[in-house]
Amino acid sequence: MSGMTGFESHAGPISARWPSQRLSSLCDEQLQQFERDGFLVGLDVLSTDDVHELTQRLERLGSELECHQDLLYEIEAAWLERPGEVVLHFLGAWRVDEMFHDLIYHPAITHPCAQLLKTPRLRFWHDQVFWKPVRHPGAVPWHQDYAYWTRTAPAAHITMFISVDEMGPDNGGLEYVPGSHGWGLLPQQEFGGDMNALLDSLSQSQRTSFRPEPVILKAGQASIHHSHLVHGSRANTSDRPRRGVVLNFIADGVKVADDSEPLLKGVPIIPAGQPVAGEFFPIVLDLDARE
Ligand SMILES: O=C(O)CCC(=O)C(=O)O
User: Domain locations in the chain?
Assistant: First the structure.
């Protein structure tokens, strides 16, 4: 992994940091719930000690963001221009910090995602951090994740949101629109733009069904959502920060649909039609190899 990360990493597909024998599995009811609603909430992913360590590492990373610009894939441009108004959002922490790196192999994270994508081989796509400081007005406009990912196809992508802090409506918690994963692909939304801009693109019946539900998580718990689920979040009106570490995965076999630019900043171009693969997109779970 030389040059790929800012640390010496020897972690293979199964990292020594996590107890690799224990794969958390979703039950049939959860699988059906995901099919119906497009999301699951309240998954226990990180221990109290892990949350404590991740918080410390995140705070260090947040205070040194400029030093890591080479390794990070992206620091949200709108945040750089208007940090007092826009949520801090950056991609690529897994290349900077060893714990963020190892997190992508965590069995309580990878197995549920593989189950929901119905794949034996789960591949890492990228990570994201969404950070709302205390009493911060930044909202994340309603959006679907796949609207940002059409450079890869087919859509066999999934998102896990891991809450670093206790999260609810008062601190600008995530909100999901149940059933909206069945609405087809809607236009991409501008980060830092109008929270409700997406509503202009909804049909009358979609507007009628637009009933967001708050996602309530304890620190260390996670939610998982479908690549087409409409979600967003409002301002943090509380005295508590609201930080989320988001991990995005794909089923092995997803291909590059557009090679006019690298898939992510600094990543070698993979020709269109070729599967997404290579050291930047490692296999994080291979169920066939475990047997
Ligand atoms: O943290 C937020 O409010 C937005 C998170 C998000 O968009 C995601 O998890 O895909």
Answer: 28-290
> Is pLDDT above 70 for 106?
yes
**290 C-alpha vs ligand 1 centroid, how far in Å?**
32
**What does pTM read for this prediction?**
0.96
DSSP-assigned letters across all residues of 110-156? HHHHHHHHT-SEEEEEEEEEEEE-TTB---EEEE-GGGG-TTEES--
CATH 1.20.120.640 is held by the domain 28-290: no
Q: What atom of ligand 1 comes closest to residue 242's alpha carbon?
A: 1
Q: How far is the CA of 232 from the centre of ligand 1 (A)?
A: 6
**pLDDT band of 2, cuts 50, 70, 90:** very low
pLDDT in tens, 54-80: 999 999 999 999 999 999 999 999 999
Length of the chain, in residues: 291
Report the C-alpha gap between 141 and 196 in whole angstroms.
6
- Amino acid (one-letter) located at 253: G
